[in-house]
Write a structure and sequence with these properties.
Largest sheet: 6 strands, parallel
CATH architecture of the largest domain: 3-Layer(aba) Sandwich
Structural class: alpha/beta
Radius of gyration: 21 Å
Number of domains: 2
Strand order of the largest sheet: 2-1-3-4-5-6
Length: about 220
């Protein structure tokens, strides 16, 4: 237990993540929101900044996704100084496809190297699936698979459905997944034609201002 918490019987968790980041929301924030229910107020703190002033408050675990703005060597130094355990989560591979919206940014700023360095200094790594776990294992053998923390029953994940005679398909994601969803274009055309779903199929997606990734028969 952290040296500032010798008299406490519970662990205190500092989570790094922004509410505006979808990955942090489902991988870091939501799981901890459910964990903190019926717990003391200082059990968990969620923030998008970390510094020595914050660490001096005595956190036992620091949880983060991928990497932060400073080198992993600094986090390693703080681990030794403040005695916390570092949990690093990765939802996807650090090497991006050349067509990915962020590929140039990743290459210019050497983001992949930074992510790998954080994996190496982590006490525990978490990932979304077995293939990614195998990749992380090459850098850190203490890796575990955790599903996304989706709040089933709340908000957009509510169980109430509006009856319809249409077959409704919904895809949710940002424009960074435009190339992923485009893979479905031709299969969906085939389904649309083979099963005579004209006027029976209702498409919905999440669109961004930058680029639409709507699936329909005109594409």
């Amino acid at each position: 237990m952290n040296h500032n918490n010798l008299n406490k019987l519970r662990m205190r968790i500092l989570a790094l993540g922004s509410l505006n980041n979808g990955v942090a929301f489902h991988r870091i924030i939501m799981p901890l929101v459910y964990m903190v229910q019926d717990k003391p107020e200082d059990y968990v703190k969620i923030t998008n900044q970390i510094d020595e002033e914050e660490l001096e408050k005595g956190w036992d675990i620091v949880v983060m996704n991928r990497s932060v703005s400073f080198p992993a060597s600094k986090m390693q130094e703080w681990k030794g100084k403040y005695g916390f355990k570092l949990v690093v989560d990765n939802d996807d591979h650090w090497e991006l496809d050349p067509h990915h919206l962020l590929a140039e940014y990743y290459a210019t700023n050497k983001i992949a190297d930074r992510i790998k360095e954080y994996i190496q200094v982590a006490d525990v790594c978490t990932v979304t699936h077995s293939r990614l776990a195998e990749e992380v294992y090459n850098l850190n053998t203490n890796v575990h698979i955790l599903p996304n923390g989706l709040p089933y029953g709340d908000g957009q994940f509510g169980s109430q459905k509006v009856k319809s005679d249409k077959v409704r398909l919904f895809w949710s994601g940002s424009d960074t997944h435009a190339n992923d969803i485009s893979i479905l274009r031709h299969p969906m055309k085939k389904i649309y034609g083979d099963y005579d779903l004209r006027n029976k199929l209702d498409y919905r997606d999440w669109e961004t201002d930058r680029k639409s990734t709507r699936l329909n028969s005109s594409h």
